[in-house]
Amino acid sequence: NAGVTQTPKFQVLKTGQSMTLQCAQDMNHNSMYWYRQDPGMGLRLIYYSASEGTTDKGEVPNGYNVSRLNKREFSLRLESAAPSQTSVYFCASRVGNSPLHFGNGTRLTVT
Amino acid sequence: AQSVTQLDSQVPVFEEAPVELRCNYSSSVSVYLFWYVQYPNQGLQLLLKYLSGSTLVKGINGFEAEFNKSQTSFHLRKPSVHISDTAEYFCAVSVRSGNTPLVFGKGTRLSVIA
Predict the structure, then answer these.
(1) Cβ contact B47:B76 at 8 Å
(2) DSSP A43-73
(3) Coil, strand, or helix at residue A84?
(4) CA dist A84 to A33, A57, A64, A110, Å?
(5) Of B10, B34, B38, B44, which to mutate for an interface test with A (greatest number of A Cβ within 10 Å)?
(6) Which residues of B touch A51 (CB under 8 A)?
(7) Which residues contact A98 (CB under 8 A, 6 or more apart)?
(8) pLDDT tens track for A33-90
(9) What are phi and psi of A100, to 5 degrees?
(10) Are A51 and A29 in contact (CB under 8 A)?
Protein backbone atom coordinates (compact mmCIF):
# COMPACT_ATOMS: atom_id res chain seq x y z
CA ASN A 1 0.00 0.00 0.00
CA ALA A 2 2.62 2.54 -1.07
CA GLY A 3 0.30 5.40 -2.16
CA VAL A 4 2.42 8.28 -3.48
CA THR A 5 6.18 7.74 -3.50
CA GLN A 6 8.66 10.57 -3.96
CA THR A 7 12.39 10.32 -4.52
CA PRO A 8 14.80 11.53 -3.34
CA LYS A 9 13.87 12.54 0.22
CA PHE A 10 16.69 15.07 0.50
CA GLN A 11 18.89 16.82 -2.05
CA VAL A 12 21.51 19.56 -1.98
CA LEU A 13 22.35 21.31 -5.24
CA LYS A 14 24.70 24.08 -6.23
CA THR A 15 23.30 27.03 -8.14
CA GLY A 16 23.01 26.16 -11.82
CA GLN A 17 22.87 22.40 -11.39
CA SER A 18 19.91 20.42 -12.69
CA MET A 19 17.89 17.60 -11.18
CA THR A 20 14.65 15.68 -11.55
CA LEU A 21 12.28 14.93 -8.70
CA GLN A 22 10.43 11.67 -9.21
CA CYS A 23 6.87 10.86 -8.18
CA ALA A 24 4.89 7.66 -8.64
CA GLN A 25 1.43 6.62 -7.44
CA ASP A 26 -0.10 3.16 -7.37
CA MET A 27 -3.75 4.17 -6.81
CA ASN A 28 -4.72 4.46 -10.48
CA HIS A 29 -5.38 8.18 -10.03
CA ASN A 30 -5.91 10.34 -13.09
CA SER A 31 -4.63 13.65 -11.75
CA MET A 32 -1.20 14.43 -10.33
CA TYR A 33 0.22 17.63 -8.85
CA TRP A 34 3.45 19.25 -7.76
CA TYR A 35 3.36 21.75 -4.89
CA ARG A 36 6.12 23.58 -3.08
CA GLN A 37 5.93 24.49 0.61
CA ASP A 38 7.74 27.48 2.04
CA PRO A 39 7.47 28.86 5.59
CA GLY A 40 4.49 31.19 5.94
CA MET A 41 3.43 30.62 2.31
CA GLY A 42 1.43 27.41 2.59
CA LEU A 43 1.45 25.13 -0.44
CA ARG A 44 1.69 26.67 -3.86
CA LEU A 45 0.93 24.77 -7.04
CA ILE A 46 3.81 24.49 -9.52
CA TYR A 47 2.34 22.26 -12.25
CA TYR A 48 -0.38 19.68 -12.52
CA SER A 49 -1.54 16.96 -14.88
CA ALA A 50 -5.30 16.43 -15.02
CA SER A 51 -4.86 13.24 -17.03
CA GLU A 52 -2.18 11.24 -18.78
CA GLY A 53 -0.78 13.26 -21.68
CA THR A 54 -1.74 16.70 -20.34
CA THR A 55 0.11 19.19 -18.15
CA ASP A 56 -0.78 22.70 -17.01
CA LYS A 57 0.97 25.51 -15.18
CA GLY A 58 0.04 26.37 -11.65
CA GLU A 59 0.72 29.46 -9.58
CA VAL A 60 4.55 29.31 -9.58
CA PRO A 61 5.79 27.44 -12.71
CA ASN A 62 8.85 29.54 -13.57
CA GLY A 63 12.11 27.59 -13.45
CA TYR A 64 10.40 24.20 -13.59
CA ASN A 65 9.34 21.66 -16.20
CA VAL A 66 7.26 18.53 -15.80
CA SER A 67 6.69 15.24 -17.59
CA ARG A 68 3.71 12.94 -17.18
CA LEU A 69 5.55 9.80 -18.21
CA ASN A 70 2.52 7.51 -17.88
CA LYS A 71 -0.51 7.28 -15.63
CA ARG A 72 1.63 6.40 -12.60
CA GLU A 73 4.55 8.80 -12.88
CA PHE A 74 4.88 12.59 -12.86
CA SER A 75 8.36 14.12 -12.66
CA LEU A 76 9.47 17.67 -11.89
CA ARG A 77 12.69 19.01 -13.40
CA LEU A 78 14.80 21.96 -12.38
CA GLU A 79 17.02 22.82 -15.34
CA SER A 80 19.20 25.40 -13.60
CA ALA A 81 18.61 25.49 -9.87
CA ALA A 82 18.49 28.81 -8.00
CA PRO A 83 18.58 29.52 -4.24
CA SER A 84 14.94 30.71 -4.51
CA GLN A 85 14.02 27.11 -5.32
CA THR A 86 15.12 25.94 -1.88
CA SER A 87 11.89 24.43 -0.58
CA VAL A 88 10.02 21.27 0.32
CA TYR A 89 8.36 19.75 -2.73
CA PHE A 90 5.24 17.63 -2.48
CA CYS A 91 3.71 15.43 -5.11
CA ALA A 92 0.02 14.55 -4.81
CA SER A 93 -2.60 12.64 -6.75
CA ARG A 94 -6.35 12.12 -6.84
CA VAL A 95 -9.23 10.90 -8.97
CA GLY A 96 -11.92 13.39 -9.94
CA ASN A 97 -12.61 15.85 -7.11
CA SER A 98 -11.70 13.42 -4.33
CA PRO A 99 -9.18 14.56 -1.68
CA LEU A 100 -5.51 14.73 -2.56
CA HIS A 101 -3.14 11.98 -1.46
CA PHE A 102 0.33 13.35 -0.71
CA GLY A 103 3.81 11.90 -0.80
CA ASN A 104 6.21 12.52 2.07
CA GLY A 105 8.05 15.31 0.31
CA THR A 106 11.51 16.14 -1.02
CA ARG A 107 13.56 18.66 0.92
CA LEU A 108 15.72 20.57 -1.57
CA THR A 109 18.48 23.00 -0.67
CA VAL A 110 20.17 25.10 -3.35
CA THR A 111 23.42 26.78 -2.29
CA ALA B 1 -10.29 32.21 -9.13
CA GLN B 2 -10.73 30.90 -5.64
CA SER B 3 -8.65 31.79 -2.60
CA VAL B 4 -8.34 30.73 1.04
CA THR B 5 -7.53 32.85 4.07
CA GLN B 6 -6.52 31.25 7.33
CA LEU B 7 -6.97 34.02 9.82
CA ASP B 8 -4.42 32.90 12.41
CA SER B 9 -0.86 31.88 11.60
CA GLN B 10 -0.23 30.52 15.11
CA VAL B 11 -2.60 29.32 17.81
CA PRO B 12 -1.26 28.32 21.24
CA VAL B 13 -3.71 26.46 23.47
CA PHE B 14 -3.50 24.54 26.73
CA GLU B 15 -4.02 20.79 26.77
CA GLU B 16 -7.68 19.74 27.18
CA ALA B 17 -8.92 23.21 26.16
CA PRO B 18 -11.14 23.70 23.09
CA VAL B 19 -9.72 25.13 19.89
CA GLU B 20 -11.06 26.74 16.72
CA LEU B 21 -8.92 27.29 13.62
CA ARG B 22 -10.51 29.76 11.27
CA CYS B 23 -10.75 29.50 7.49
CA ASN B 24 -12.52 31.76 5.02
CA TYR B 25 -12.67 31.19 1.28
CA SER B 26 -13.52 33.21 -1.77
CA SER B 27 -15.11 31.73 -4.87
CA SER B 28 -17.74 32.74 -7.41
CA VAL B 29 -18.89 29.13 -7.85
CA SER B 30 -19.73 26.20 -5.60
CA VAL B 31 -16.77 24.58 -3.89
CA TYR B 32 -15.47 21.55 -2.08
CA LEU B 33 -13.60 22.24 1.16
CA PHE B 34 -10.87 20.32 2.96
CA TRP B 35 -8.75 20.44 6.08
CA TYR B 36 -5.33 18.77 6.09
CA VAL B 37 -2.88 18.24 8.97
CA GLN B 38 0.90 18.12 8.72
CA TYR B 39 2.94 16.69 11.58
CA PRO B 40 6.61 17.70 11.78
CA ASN B 41 8.72 16.38 8.90
CA GLN B 42 5.79 14.56 7.33
CA GLY B 43 3.46 14.97 4.37
CA LEU B 44 -0.12 16.18 4.58
CA GLN B 45 -2.97 13.97 5.77
CA LEU B 46 -6.65 14.58 5.20
CA LEU B 47 -8.54 15.50 8.38
CA LEU B 48 -11.97 16.00 6.88
CA LYS B 49 -13.81 17.16 3.79
CA TYR B 50 -17.04 18.86 2.82
CA LEU B 51 -18.42 17.75 -0.52
CA SER B 52 -22.19 18.11 -0.05
CA GLY B 53 -24.98 17.35 2.40
CA SER B 54 -24.75 18.13 6.12
CA THR B 55 -22.82 21.30 6.82
CA LEU B 56 -21.28 19.80 9.98
CA VAL B 57 -18.50 17.47 8.99
CA LYS B 58 -16.72 15.12 11.36
CA GLY B 59 -13.17 14.01 10.72
CA ILE B 60 -10.41 11.98 12.29
CA ASN B 61 -8.91 12.53 15.74
CA GLY B 62 -12.06 14.20 17.11
CA PHE B 63 -11.97 17.21 14.78
CA GLU B 64 -15.04 18.68 13.12
CA ALA B 65 -15.76 21.61 10.83
CA GLU B 66 -18.84 23.54 9.83
CA PHE B 67 -19.48 24.86 6.34
CA ASN B 68 -21.17 28.25 6.42
CA LYS B 69 -22.06 29.34 2.90
CA SER B 70 -23.36 32.79 3.85
CA GLN B 71 -20.14 33.63 5.70
CA THR B 72 -17.95 31.66 3.25
CA SER B 73 -16.26 29.97 6.17
CA PHE B 74 -15.14 26.46 7.09
CA HIS B 75 -13.78 26.68 10.64
CA LEU B 76 -12.15 23.66 12.27
CA ARG B 77 -12.93 22.80 15.90
CA LYS B 78 -11.98 20.33 18.57
CA PRO B 79 -13.57 20.36 22.04
CA SER B 80 -10.48 19.12 23.92
CA VAL B 81 -6.98 19.09 22.42
CA HIS B 82 -4.06 16.79 23.22
CA ILE B 83 -0.33 17.32 23.02
CA SER B 84 -0.34 15.05 19.97
CA ASP B 85 -2.50 17.59 18.08
CA THR B 86 0.49 19.91 17.82
CA ALA B 87 0.91 20.31 14.05
CA GLU B 88 0.27 22.62 11.14
CA TYR B 89 -3.24 22.71 9.72
CA PHE B 90 -4.14 23.70 6.19
CA CYS B 91 -7.53 24.65 4.78
CA ALA B 92 -8.04 24.05 1.04
CA VAL B 93 -10.72 24.70 -1.56
CA SER B 94 -11.48 23.47 -5.05
CA VAL B 95 -14.33 24.30 -7.39
CA ARG B 96 -16.89 21.62 -8.11
CA SER B 97 -16.40 21.46 -11.86
CA GLY B 98 -13.66 19.58 -13.65
CA ASN B 99 -10.28 18.55 -12.28
CA THR B 100 -9.38 21.94 -10.88
CA PRO B 101 -6.47 21.87 -8.43
CA LEU B 102 -6.83 22.54 -4.73
CA VAL B 103 -5.88 25.98 -3.50
CA PHE B 104 -4.39 26.01 -0.01
CA GLY B 105 -4.32 28.58 2.75
CA LYS B 106 -1.03 29.57 4.34
CA GLY B 107 -1.53 27.29 7.31
CA THR B 108 -2.12 27.61 11.06
CA ARG B 109 0.43 26.25 13.48
CA LEU B 110 -1.35 24.76 16.49
CA SER B 111 0.82 24.44 19.58
CA VAL B 112 -0.67 22.51 22.50
CA ILE B 113 0.86 23.43 25.85
CA ALA B 114 0.98 20.94 28.73
Answers:
(1) yes
(2) EEEEEEESSTT--EE-S--TTEEEEE-SSSB
(3) helix
(4) 20, 18, 12, 8
(5) B44
(6) 99
(7) none
(8) 999 999 888 999 999 999 998 999 999 999 999 999 899 999 999 999 999 999 999 9
(9) -75, 145
(10) no
